[in-house]
Amino acid sequence: MHSTSLKLLLLLFLAPGYCLATYYVKNSYGEINSSYNSVGQSGLIHLPSASLQDTGTVGLTLGKSSLNSLISIIATPFPWLEASFFYHRPRDTFYIKQNKYLDKGFNLKLGFNYKGVDLALGLDDIAGTGFFTKEYLVASTQLDNLVITAGIGTGALAADHPYKNPISTFRERPRSKGSEFGGELDFKSFFRGPVGLFGGVEFFSTRFPGLSIKIESNPYDYKQFLAGGFLPNNKFRKKRRKQQDYNYGFSYKFKNDFVLSLSMVNGNSFDLSLSTKFNFNDPRSSVQPKKVALISNSKNNKLAFYQNILRNLEKDDLFLQAAKLDNKNNLHLAIVNNKYNDPVSVFKHTKLVTSELATLQNIPLSYLTITNINSGMETSKITAKATNRLAPEKIGYIDLEKPDNNTKEYDFQTILKFPEFYNSVKPEFIYRYADPTRFFAGGIDLKITSEIKFLADLYLTTAISYQLTNSFERLRYYPDSPYLPHVRTDVVKYLNNRPDLYLNSMQLDKVSKIANDHYLKLSAGMYEMMFGGYGLEYLWKPFASNLSIGLSLYQVKQRDFQQRLKFRDYQISTGHSNFIYFHPESGLTLDLSIGKYLAGDKGYTFDFSRRFKSGFKMGAYFTRTNISAKTYGEGSFDKGFYFEMPLNIFNINATKGITNLTIQPLTRDGGAKLKTNNPLIYSIISGSESDYRFYAD
After folding, report:
1. By C-alpha distance, which of 449, 445, 471 is closest to 462?
2. How far is it between the farthest Cα atoms of the chain?
3. Helices (H), ranges, 626-665
4. Under DSSP, is residue 516 helix (H, G, I), strand (E, B) or coil?
């Protein structure tokens, strides 16, 4: 055995005991928040640690060395889970002719803390091509300004100095199926085969705050990190040949959470990485209504009160529909919300405005009741004390009720004149991320959106876009399945054949409450870039239930590549049953969708996500249908993860609206769902009892 291996073994056998001993040592340095390694997970240089980031953190890592380039997005939705997606390009491997090879994969880490020691189980490069596949158990602990990490792993972690697996039935590791089509979860290979020991330390400088020095063992055989397994020239052959059993380097953390790292890897290669992270766990905006003023000059004090509420709320895009001040000084209001993404903020805002106006007009208030109106329907009702002017951010005790549909009997009624027109003009960022032949392509359009409300529950929404600039002509897409209609893989044709001015979408919706807890939406139009048609959505959603059940049925036809009012020949009936459970105490949503997809395949989609008090949401999904991995093509089945970000997340001023980022490793035709605007289920769920409980103080 090599002398370096003996030294490493000694270090790794002693490190766990040292980790446990540190539990009894007073920590005077303070808790250290670990950084990301250069391959996109909480760790050292190339090795993972047992540490996880704070709950609600999303990170981005860019890494570059003489061997490869890598970008990772890392999310920590729970204190025990870290998930990441990486996009990797080796410099010495090619895809088709001279096209650069691009590899993608997912990493998972499950962790917890036991008596001051972080422990974690990790699965790397799952559901990918499997070139970086490894599984590990790792422990990390802190002693003052020193963090020690030690672990044991299989797969790539046992490539250089392997040892016999202590579990006899796990000593043989089958060949990964990921290399054929990619994307399959190969459970039979997890933790199997030879094992390797690994570890390292990170020293945080007290003299230069933000500076840390990292040293780690190097258990990898970098010749294995190749697609196709070939080395085209001697230059890269030398770079991949291990010359040292240790990697070492340093990191510097700037005040804005940017971390710059430089390391020596393999004894012959420099590794440069830049990472940053954001925490979206806490609310980003506060309730700040515009200055309250007496506007009405009516001699009737109660009528003036109603009119002042109307005008002051209107300044902040909250629209009063009806009002009543009863003989017990309880104020009842019906409101349409165009400002906030959560119903609790609507109540806080209204409470602050009405309390101030009541003081100015010498009107005593006992309780405030707000009924939320959405698409002409009463969706929720909340009551709380109306007298707390000093703490508008706190509601206190609230009483949630199912709406009783009596707001039309209130004293004051706003006169609604139809049709109503709403228009907006804003830039729109369009992107393609993680395509097989190019990491990124994007463009900026000017999007003109118009909404015509013919009635409170009947409206037409049209979006026309003008192309300002884009780089989509660089995209080259090669659909690899001849068995399915091209319902998604013609995306490059849609992007490159659009005229400068094109019809983004046009959708006519009619929303109705057909019975208690039962809702219906009828719609028609150009729903998305690729499909238009007509259909319906049904929803069963009791106000006090965390469960909702929906049904969607659509007849759609494929749009022409120029995105005008013309269609191509392909058409299909598609639809799904949805079962959604929301757990307000944790913000966890489980969504099971079963039905028929755009390519005619049948199956299910399972979506799980977590929402935070800021409104930020992170989730993941996978779809399995009745087509084989061969028919689906590379990737084997549809999967990905996504983020939903309120537009006000970086701004203290509230504004309604959400932007989405979906990371789908491959665009394929199997498991493709129709995309529509304003799905019924999300319109009704917002403002339900569970929604209030989640956002309440």
Report:
1. 449
2. 97
3. 629-632
4. coil
Instruction: Looking at the structure, tell me whether residues 15 and 141 fall in a common domain.
Output: yes
Task: Give exposure, 632-666, as e/b (b: 16+ Cβ within 10 Å).
Answer: bbbbbbbbbbbbbbbebbeeeebeeeeeeeebbbb
The torsion angles phi and psi of 111, rounded to 5 degrees, stand at: -140, 160
Could you tell me if 149 and 46 are in contact, meaning their C-beta atoms sit under 8 angstroms apart? no
453 close to 376: Cβ distance less than 8 angstroms: no
Cis, bond preceding 419 (omega within 30 deg of 0): yes
The amino acid occupying position 509 is: D
Mapping DSSP to helix (H, G, I), strand (E, B) and coil, where does residue 57 land? strand
Q: What is the pLDDT of residues 473-530, one digit of tens each?
A: 877 666 656 789 999 988 889 999 999 999 999 999 999 989 888 999 999 999 999 9
Query: Which one-letter amino acid corresponds to residue 429?
Result: F
Provide the H-helix boundaries in 70-166. Answer: none
Token pair recorded at residue 13: 């056998």
What DSSP line would sit under 1-36, residue for residue? --HHHHHHHHHHHHHHHHHHHGGGS---S------B
At 281 the three-state DSSP class reads: coil
Residues 6+ apart with CB under 8 A from 443: 429, 430, 431, 467, 468, 469, 470, 471, 472
Alpha-carbon distance of 142 to 211, in angstroms, equals 16
Together in a domain, 262 and 318: no
> Cα separation of 83 and 77, whole Å?
8
Burial of 460 (0-12, 13-18, 19+ CB in 10 A): middle
Question: Would you list the DSSP string of 277-295?
Answer: EEE-SS------PPPP---
**Residue 293 counted as domain residue:** no
Only one residue has tokens 């540490």, namely 51
Residue 150: is its pLDDT beyond 90? yes
Q: Is 3's pLDDT higher than 90?
A: no
Q: Which domain holds residue 231?
A: 3-275
Residue 506 and residue 535 share a domain:
yes
Of 111-125, 153-167, 488-502, the poorest mean pLDDT is in: 153-167
Q: Is 239 helix (H, G, I), strand (E, B) or coil?
A: helix
Share of the chain above pLDDT 70, in %: 83
Helices (H), strands (E): how many in the chain? 8, 31
pLDDT per position as a tens digit, 228-251: 444 455 566 667 777 888 999 999
Q: ∠ CA(142), CA(143), CA(147), 5° rounding?
A: 40
Q: Are residues 236 and 328 in the same domain?
A: no
Q: By the 8 A CB rule, do 69 and 48 touch? A: no
pLDDT > 90? residue 288: no
